[in-house]
């Protein structure tokens, strides 16, 4: 990995940062700012469920843009509860699909209600906390959960089921962690801006990752000053949401290739973030990594560092056009607040140093 | 009081529907609103011929892979497999066009055509509402006061 610039751990940014959400007009003034170096536009790119929006939300939170409106909290309650219902539905559907019976009769009753009639308003009733938790602990559901690579399920499933007693209550108020953990598929493009000192502003742009969403990325390619590409380390045993027969790693590599070798990005600093390191380390403890990569030494498959090194090579091999000395590679656990903060700070420093070089 | 019904309230109001559509366009996310509107129209159609035409156009514009306003939804849910089979069958018969024999007696590999009912897109319409939630939250924040005044969309905390 000799050519890879790993930016040094610098001290936490000294300047005070003010953040302004600008999401109601993501494309506003972009033409005018294309040459204006007082604004640095950073694109978050990557396939679906790679963690772009999770990192975006973390950056919002540590720049002081959090849940500001009470109304927003109400929408968030809805989103969290929809996540619970979708997870429950997907698990129940999977037991049918995988031919795993739900063992307890009362849990079978709960499953029926989930599929047929349960809606988010029902979850205000605390009795659902017990019922859903009992379903979650059912041996049949747990067996399906162990086989979750065979169907689509959010990473947040376990977290949400373990927090049902809070969520299923008319007093429920989503916490910051709930918001970070909740999966919302991003549709379209949003952005935020914040000061980074020296009279400069950083504009962070978040996009959707599924195939149809990628057609929209091009609108921002002209005005970009840096690209942060995310890929999920824990997707090695998963297929796509939008195309269930397609391996996620293959898709990520393909998208990475298209983006990193795009002529519009030759001159911009490029960061490759291997996200979900936390999930990945848990996953390789119980699942075979080498099964999915014929070129990988099986004896090393329980060693996360070796696995990540292998993944890094796989991705860097895709780079044919972009100068390697402006590519930086890092790992990330975007759901971890402190880790996100540290990694994003490093990313920011790398980008600004590269800008300086120009 | 939940945001799903808030979204529906906004979408069913002509002026707010238009405002939300414009907002969504700016966020490059107009396809869910446009599809939602198309489904409303679809549900109201009485003539079978018109319904079939709109069904075809909706599939062609929003649902088939590579469609100009392709929705971000899973292909194996929301009744999409059945919808696509019907769409493919319609497309095939359109290609065969006038040379084709009267329906029912033609090719042996004739595909199943599911009846085109007015409820056919209902599950997709709900999926569109879910897709809108994220952008709706931001829309809501920018029009909070007005929404409260005009539509009674209240920012009440239930604590």
From TrEMBL, chain A:
InterPro entries: Gprotein_alpha_su (IPR001019), GproteinA_insert (IPR011025), P-loop_NTPase (IPR027417). Keywords: GTP-binding, Magnesium, Metal-binding, Nucleotide-binding, Transducer. Residues 1-33 are annotated as: Disordered. One of its GO terms (cellular component) is cytoplasm. GTP binds at residues 49-54, 155-156, 206-210, 275-278, 334. Residues 20-33 have a biased composition (Polar residues). GO terms for molecular function: G protein-coupled receptor binding; G-protein beta/gamma-subunit complex binding; GTP binding; GTPase activity; metal ion binding. Pfam families: G-alpha. PANTHER family: GTP-BINDING PROTEIN ALPHA SUBUNIT, GUANINE NUCLEOTIDE-BINDING PROTEIN ALPHA-5 SUBUNIT. This is G protein, alpha subunit family. It comes from Naegleria gruberi (Amoeba).
From TrEMBL, chain B:
InterPro entries: RGS, RGS_sf, RGS_subdomain_2. It comes from Naegleria gruberi. Transmembrane segments: none annotated. Residues 6-68 form the RGS domain. It comes from the Eukaryota. This is Predicted protein. Gene3D superfamilies: Regulator of G-protein Signalling 4, domain 2. SMART domains: RGS. The lineage of its organism: Eukaryota, Discoba, Heterolobosea, Tetramitia, Eutetramitia. Pfam families: RGS (PF00615). PANTHER family: DOUBLE HIT, ISOFORM B, REGULATOR OF G PROTEIN SIGNALING.
């Amino acid at each position: 990995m000799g050519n890879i610039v790993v930016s040094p751990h610098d001290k936490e940014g000294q300047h005070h940062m003010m953040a302004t959400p600008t999401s109601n007009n993501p494309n506003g003034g972009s033409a005018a700012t294309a040459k204006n170096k007082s604004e640095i536009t950073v694109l978050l790119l990557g396939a679906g469920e790679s963690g772009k929006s999770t990192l975006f939300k973390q950056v919002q939170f540590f720049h002081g843009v959090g849940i500001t409106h009470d109304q927003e909290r109400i929408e968030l309650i809805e989103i969290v509860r929809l996540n619970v219902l979708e997870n429950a539905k997907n698990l129940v559907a999977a037991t049918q699909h995988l031919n795993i019976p739900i063992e307890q009769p009362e849990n079978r009753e709960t499953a029926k209600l989930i599929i047929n009639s349960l809606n988010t308003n029902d979850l205000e009733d605390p009795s659902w906390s017990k019922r859903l938790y009992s379903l979650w602990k059912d041996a049949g559901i747990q067996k399906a959960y162990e086989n979750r690579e065979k169907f689509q399920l959010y990473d947040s499933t376990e977290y949400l089921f373990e927090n049902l007693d809070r969520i299923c209550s008319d007093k429920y108020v989503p916490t910051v962690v709930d918001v970070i953990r909740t999966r919302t598929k991003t549709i379209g493009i949003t952005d935020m801006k914040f000061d980074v000192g020296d009279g400069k502003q950083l504009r962070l742009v978040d996009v959707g990752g599924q195939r149809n969403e990628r057609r929209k990325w091009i609108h921002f390619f002209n005005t970009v000053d840096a690209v942060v590409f995310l890929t999920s380390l824990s997707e090695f045993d998963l297929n796509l949401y939008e195309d269930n027969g397609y391996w996620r790693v293959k898709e990520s590599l393909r998208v990475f290739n298209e983006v990193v070798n795009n002529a519009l990005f030759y001159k911009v600093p490029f960061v490759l973030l291997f996200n979900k390191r936390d999930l990945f380390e848990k996953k390789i403890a119980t699942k075979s990594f080498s099964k999915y990569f014929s070129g990988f030494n099986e004896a090393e498959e329980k060693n996360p560092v070796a696995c990540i090194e292998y993944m890094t090579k796989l991705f860097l091999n895709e780079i044919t056009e972009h100068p390697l000395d402006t590519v930086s590679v890092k790992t990330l656990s975007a759901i971890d607040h402190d880790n996100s903060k540290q990694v994003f700070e490093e990313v920011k420093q790398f980008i600004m140093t590269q800008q300086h070089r120009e | 009081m939940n945001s799903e019904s808030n979204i529906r309230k906004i979408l069913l109001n002509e002026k707010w529907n238009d405002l939300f559509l414009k907002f969504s366009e700016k966020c490059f996310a107009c396809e869910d609103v446009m599809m939602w509107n198309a489904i409303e129209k679809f549900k109201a159609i009485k003539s079978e011929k018109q319904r079939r035409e709109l069904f075809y156009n909706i599939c062609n514009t929003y649902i088939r892979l590579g469609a100009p306003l392709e929705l971000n939804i899973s292909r194996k849910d929301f009744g999409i497999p059945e919808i696509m089979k019907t769409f493919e069958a319609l497309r095939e018969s359109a290609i065969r066009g006038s040379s084709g024999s009267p329906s029912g007696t033609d090719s042996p590999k004739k595909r199943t055509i599911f009846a085109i009912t007015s409820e056919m897109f209902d599950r997709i319409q709900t999926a569109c509402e879910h897709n809108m939630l994220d952008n709706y939250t931001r829309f809501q924040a920018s029009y909070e006061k007005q929404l409260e005044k005009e539509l009674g969309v209240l920012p009440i905390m239930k604590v």
